[in-house]
Design a protein that fits this description.
It contains nine helices and eight strands. The chain has helices at about 20-30, 50-70, 85-90, 100-110, 125-135, 150-155, 155-175, 190-195, 205-220, and strands at about 10-15, 35-40, 75-80, 95-100, 115-120, 140-145, 180, 200-205. The relative contact order is 0.17.
Length: about 220
């Protein structure tokens, strides 16, 4: 983007944990340093989204965060693997909105059959419903969750590693040609899991950051 104005993306974390916002911002900045990544954290709702009720509140919190923080950015990234409030944000926003789940599901599917690995058992039916609703389930072999929630994984990623690898191996057993690590709190973990798995391990935040960068580049 040399010689052109720097494009900006507002990253909305629809939970109230600022450390998760910082984690996503750091991952986006590493992956796409030519984009200016601005972050905002939900002003109300759950510390981490791990239930239907928390997901519903997060949809409202995402819209509130956008209205409070959007300041001329060229794009928006909704940084929750489940995209609460995605369609409402797209209706409200004058600039494109990229969903963490939607964009990374689409990118993973380009690698072939894929399995999702994430934290928190409540997410399995929620993500399955999301995938069906957005027609993202073609090529999805399964959604494999571990006992650890996203918040617990973020607090102790080394401790969660064995459980994540075991879940990923279930996906490989079922025919997945790649593993999609889902969840903002799992940003940056793919390289540490990759040596223990025979298929590519994909980071949902890296994929979403690429989707934002491609969108901004095409709009330039």
């Amino acid at each position: 983007m040399t010689g052109r104005p720097v494009k900006r993306c507002l990253v909305i974390n629809p939970n109230t944990t600022a450390a998760v916002t910082d984690l996503v911002l750091a991952a986006c900045r590493r992956a796409q340093p030519d984009v200016q990544w601005d972050g905002t954290t939900a002003r109300f709702g759950a510390a981490y989204i791990a239930s239907e009720a928390a997901y519903a509140r997060a949809s409202h919190a995402a819209l509130d965060a956008f209205e409070a923080a959007h300041d001329g950015q060229d794009a928006v990234l909704l940084a929750c693997f489940g995209d609460p409030g995605l369609m409402g944000l797209r209706e409200l926003s004058p600039v494109p909105v990229v969903g963490l789940a939607q964009s990374s599901f689409q990118a993973a599917a380009r690698h072939g059959r894929f399995a999702v690995v994430t934290g928190g058992h409540a997410w399995a039916p929620m993500l399955a419903r999301f995938a069906r609703a957005h027609e993202l389930d073609r090529g999805l072999t399964g959604i494999h969750t571990i006992d650890w929630t996203g918040a617990q994984i973020a607090a102790d990623p080394d401790g969660a590693r064995d459980a994540l690898v075991a879940a990923a191996r279930l996906g490989v057993r079922d025919g997945a040609q790649c593993i999609l690590l889902g969840g903002a709190a799992l940003a940056g973990l793919a390289p540490s899991l990759q040596p223990q798995l025979p298929v590519p391990v994909l980071d949902n935040v890296v994929l979403a950051a690429q989707a934002v960068a491609d969108l901004l580049e095409n709009a330039a």
